[in-house]
Model the fold of this input.
Amino acid sequence: MSLAAVGNWEGPLGALHDVITVCDTAVILYFLAINTGHLMLNLLALGEITRRLRRAPFAGYEDAAGSPFTPPISVIMPAYNEAAGITEAVRAMLLLHYPVFEVIVVDDGSTDGTLEALAEAFDLAEVDHVVPEDVPIRGSVLSLRLPRGGPVPLVVARKENGGKADALNVGINLARYPLVCMVDADSILDSQALLAVAKPFSDDPLRVIASGGVVGIANGCTVEAGRVVEAHVPSDPLGRAQVVEYLRGFFLGRTGWSRIGGLLIIAGAFGLFRRDAVVAVGGMDPDCIGEDAELVVRLHRYMREQGRRNRDYRIVFVTEPISWSEAPSELRVLGRQRRRWQRGLMEILLKHRRMIGNPRYGRVGTVAMPFYVLFELAAPLVELSGLVLMPLGVLLGAVDVAFLWRFLLAAYVYAMIISLVSIAVEEYAYHRFSRWRDVWGAFVGVVVENVGYRQFTAWWRLRGMWDALNRAPQVWGSMARSGFGSEQIPEGGKRT
Amino acid sequence: MIPLDFITGALLYLLAVGLALSLLVTVIRGARTLRRRRRERVAAPVRGLLLELLCAPEEEQGELLERMARIDRRTWTALEPTVAAMLGKVSGRARTALVRLYEMRGSAAQAVADLGSRSAVRRGRAAQVLGQLRHRPATPSLCRLLDDRDREVRLAAARALGRTGDPAAVPHLLRSLHGPRAVSPKIVTAALTSLGADAWHRLAAGLQDPAPLVRAVAVEVLGVTGAIARTPDIVRALREDPETEVRIRAARALGRLGMPDGLEPLLAAIRPGQPAAPRIVAAGALGSLGAEAATGPLAALLGDPDPHVAGTVARALLRLGPPGEAALRGAVRDRPDTRAAAQARAVLAEAAVGGTRHDVLVEVSL
Done:
């Protein structure tokens, strides 16, 4: 027995039966294709990670740490109502292990005393300022503050509220170094983070224009002095599912894309860019809710449209574990986040639709963007359609029950296998999680991610697409933080 | 359509794969833990000996070296990562002892042999080892590796050549900057800088190279390593080189060298009507030079339409000391509502809180 017509179907019901049969077949093929696509990315990533591990002994990290030719970096940290954790965050940034860098905090009109907290902690003094307008900004800079008397490489700008992208643009204008690193105010960076993410710029300075770093989930981790000293898998199912999702999608997925030159997303939580390239494309787009990914797509587009000489560029992903962020622990907060992400994706794909399938844009146009359209944008629609159509197919006799449960089980086990591959690769390559119970927790996360979590996120993502089509007002929601002094990050972050 | 038997078979197969992967994760973790413990156990008895060797006076090192050289292969494999880590951290007598230990165990000879290996990983590791040991006899082999088909091996060879300290590598390093198998200019610059004054003569030849990148790197290294005697060559590069990137580096080099001969060409380089980047660097270099004579020309550019040029000029004036500061105050007083006054006010305010940002923003594309 298989997908088979049962009974005698005629008239409109018969047509519906035929449609359901075709749709169900399409859903089955889609499941197969999406999982195989992710598996291919995982395998590409495995190859790349193995290669990097074998070459690590002669990669020259020690040289970069002590070399006067390691390119200096301006770290830009936009902040909006971050009073709870901003001081510790900036202190941790200033203690990063890197030859020359500065930290630029852009306070985007906070109302919770973020600026006052910084002013007190770092003894800031307001100074007259001239801010170049290399990239356009919306909210004007109200003040600039520097630490009194010391060599602390910190600049704090206060501007009118204009959103994260606008705050980043102010930071880009204030930056005095050739590389700009964009980090979230709640990002926890490993001490070697800048060295790792800047290495591609030293090794291949003529071609690399951007590099992104791995972002892990800080929930449940032990943090001391603004550094993750022990990584753990959180004990709540939502946290576990997100850990697995980050490993599969953000760690291995992006490594795979980077391997074939199709990296479209560098997380706003931690990315490094050539300042001149960012200025050339006009900085961040304040109208796009997924401004981090949009910048990367625009860089691809710009480089490809600049003629043959500029086509030889690279946007790369660094696999070493380097950055940690708090993940939502409440469904409501997670829902808002996923709606926003999906909306951002849809806006980006619509804005740059001429790149999709266009060979002029190389693998980005012919492979990466079609993949994102088919398997990231359309996935929630197909998944939820499948959840409706499959039972309907059973009711109409278009799908055999025995076939259906076996197929569903096979599809989910296939997806779980991909998540298990991610865990196996992490365990083989970086083994960040120190305890055995973290492994068991990750196994639980594999199940939860595929049964329950994914269906919830599919719903939120669908709503995000609706928001984009409706051009609903952009809402970032509250950004309450627990901060990260010396503590264990609560197993539910509070960011949105 | 898909037969039921097929989907059942696929399901069973997938379940088996899932189970195998779960087991694999467990086995990877277990094996790693066991291997770490075994290494610690094996290396423990000789760790003390290693520390003794590092602390021993020269006359006692011979015997300790003999003992260390005789330890069996398994123990050495367990201990070697510690020795390698130590090699990067110690200096003087302790470092010499470790290098000698590697040589006695045949590591240097093995690394030289591995430079010809078919495996890129082995070639890269060999280059790394030879660099760590500063093994000068390997220079010719490492120079050949600069043309290796693997990019990362070429980088490892360049780094190693910087460490060996043999100036004979200079022409090879400069040549490696162009061609289909080019080496990163940042890595080559760092390697050439490590060679120090011994490399100046050969570096100066690079100033005549037809490739702009070679000229730019040669100029940069001469500036960083303090090649005062080469000031006229660098001045010529700033004045005459057709490539902006070379002129940028020449201006920076003159600022670093701090010679009075650099004043005139730097003043010429900041004049309007030229690309912004060399003007910015030249202005910054004038600040480093500290010549009072630069005050007037710099002050005239405080109102430059390019805010990066004007900002750098303001900071350079501040670095000139009292005359520069007076010029800044004059701009605030005499031209209160101008761009020049705004730049001057900003820099004076930075200086008042002690937080002046002297670094010069220049995006060098080479």
In short: DSSP finds 20 helices and no strands in chain B. Chain B touches chain A through 65 residues (CB under 8 Å).
